[in-house]
Amino acid sequence: MSPDLLPLLVDRDPEAPLAWRAGVPVSAREFLSDVARLASQLPDGGPAVNLCNDRYAFALGLAAALVRGQTSLLPPDARPDTLARLIEPGRQTYALADDAALDTPGMPRVLIDHRAASDPDSDPALPTIAASLHAVSLLTSGSTGAPQPHAKSWKTLVGDVAAAVGRLAELLERPSLTGLTLVATVPVQHSYGLESSALLAMLGGAAFDSGRPFFPADVAQALASVPEPRALVTTPFHLKTLLLSGVALPKVELILSATAPLSPQLAAQAEQAMGGKLIEIYGSTESGQVATRRPTQSEVWQTFGEIRVHAEHDAEGTERFIVSGDFVPEPTPMADILELVDNRRFRLLGRANDLFHVAGRRSSLGYLNHHLNSIPGVDDGAFWLPDDLADGVVRPVVFVVAPTLDAHAIIAALRERLEAVFVPRRVVHVDAFPREGTGKLTARSLREFALAQLAADGTPVHLTHDVPEDHPAFAGHFPGQPLLPGALLLAEVLEAAQGVPALAARLGPRPTLAAAKFLSPVRPGSRLSIDLVPETAPSRGLRFEVRVGEVVAASGRWTPGPES
C-alpha cells in the first residue's frame, strides 16, 4: 500500500466484533457495509459536523465522511450558538445526527439510522484514506466559550492510536488489543473519547460499546453486557462517583483514565474493585495522547514511542515544556508544569495557569483540589480564587459536595494536609458542580457557579474591571482632563451584576436605578473594584460601591424593574 494511503480499519478478522450495540455484536464486515451505504448518501462538499451521541452512529459518520474525503468537525456541544459558529460562507457544511429531534439551524442534516440491518451478503472492500487528509477538527471550548479548532490529519490519528496500542498491550502483557471491548463514559467528540474508544477499535483492533453510560448502575450494566476481556474508559470524576456508589462492578482487565491526574489512593481502590490495571493517559487536544503512567506503581509518566519532551523559555522568560517527535506533527507546548527526569520521563506538577502565591508561598489549584478530594466524605470539591484581593492577599473559597461533613470537619482535614496559608476561611456546600461530559470543571464555569452560589445566599460579590486607556468616551470627556462619564460607569456596574446568574435573576430583565452618587473621577487605565451587595428580604435590591484603589468613585442601588 502506498504510504500516501492508510486503511480505514486496522487488519483484523472481518467477522469479529468491532462494536456492540445493546449487547449485540457488529462485525467489521457489517461496519464497512454500513459505511459504504452511508457514504453514498452524504452530500458533496462538507465539512460534516458530527453530533451523534451513539458511539456506533458517530463512528459510521466519521468513517463515511473520510471515505468521501471530507473533514469532520467535532464540537463540544450542540447548542445553537456553537453550531452557528461552524457555518462559514462558501462552505457546504452539514450535520450528521442520530436524534431526529435535534435542531441544526442553518445547516442541512443527515440522520443516521444506526439500527438499520446490514446487508448479510455484502463483502465490502476496505477503504483507504489519504494520509494527509484533514480528518477531524476537534473543537474544544476555550475560556471565551468559542470553540477553538484543532486540526488532525488521518496520518496523525493513525500514528497516535498505534503508539497507544503498543504501550497498552505491553502494560497488559498481551500481544495486541484484539478481543478487548471498551466501555466509555466520555463523549466521543472529545479528543480522549475519540482516541480511546472509536479509534482504538477502528485502528487498534479492539471493539467498543456504542453507549455512553453515566450513572453507576448504567456503567455496571454496560460492562456486564459485553464479553471479557473488558476495559473501562473514564475520568477521575466519573471513577470516583462509580466507586462511591457501592454498585457491584464486573471484572475488567484495563481501566483507562484521563483529563486530570488521579490520586494513588483512588487508583488503588479502582484496581481492587474491578480487578484490572489502571493506566492514566496524559496529553492535550493539540498534541494528542503522549504519555502514560500506572499511578499505583509510579508517579512518573513515560512518553509514547519516539516522543520526546524538553523545556524552553519564551520571550518573557517563562519556562514551558514542549513535546515533539513520532506522530506529533510539530513541536507542541503543553499547558502544564513538568519536572523532567529525562527526555522521555517526567512528573506532572500542575497547570501552568493555576499557580498562585499566598504570603510568599506558591501552590496550584490542582494540588489543592487533589487534597480536598482525598478527604473521606468529600464526594466532589473545588478551590476557587475570587477576583478581589483583601489586604493584598487572596482568600480561597472551597465548594464541596459532602453531605456527611460540615465546614469545620473539612477545614480541620485540610489543615492536616496543607500549609496554613492555603487553608480556606470559608466552605460552601453545594449539590453538584457544572461539570462537562468529560468530568472537567472549566475555570469559566466554576467562576460563574461560584459567584452565583455566593450571591444566592446574600454574600457580597467582588469583581474587578479595567478601564481601557483608549476608551472612546475619553475623547469628549474632557480634552486634557479625561474621565469616564457617570452613565458609562453605571453601565459597567449593571453589566457586572448581570454577569452573575443569581444577581441577574434578582434584578430581572429591566432593572431600575434607585440611587447613585459619584464621589471621585475615573481616569483612563483605572482598575475598578466593584462590590455588589444583595439586600435581604423583603427588598430584592442590589447595593453597589465602585472603588479605584482605596478611593470610592461611586455608590448606589439597583432594584428590580417592572414585570412587563
What does this structure look like?
This protein has 564 residues and is an alpha/beta fold. It has four domains: 7-11 and 17-299, Rossmann fold (3-Layer(aba) Sandwich), CATH 3.40.50.12780; 307-353, no CATH class; 359-455, GMP Synthetase, Chain A, domain 3 (2-Layer Sandwich), CATH 3.30.300; 458-559, Thiol Ester Dehydrase, Chain A. The strands form seven sheets. It has an eleven-stranded mixed sheet with strand order 3-2-12-11-13-14-15-16-17-22-21, with helices on both faces. β13, α7 (236-244) and β14 form a beta-alpha-beta unit. The protein starts with a strand and ends in a 5-residue tail after the last strand. The model is unreliable at 142-146 (pLDDT under 50).
Q: How many E strands?
A: 32
Strand line-up across the major sheet = 3-2-12-11-13-14-15-16-17-22-21
CATH superfamily of the largest domain: ANL, N-terminal domain
State Rg: 26 Å
Write down the CATH class of the largest domain.
Alpha Beta
SS summary, helix count: 13
As residue ranges, the low-confidence spans are 142-146
Rounded to the nearest angstrom, the distance between the terminal CA atoms is 70 Å
CATH topology of the largest domain: Rossmann fold
How many domains, in number, for the residues? 4
Mean pLDDT: 87
Strand-residue proportion? 25-35%
| Shape annotation | globular
Helical percentage: 25-40%
Which structural class best describes the helix and strand composition? alpha/beta
Q: Please state the second-level CATH architecture of the largest domain.
A: 3-Layer(aba) Sandwich
Largest sheet: 11 strands, mixed
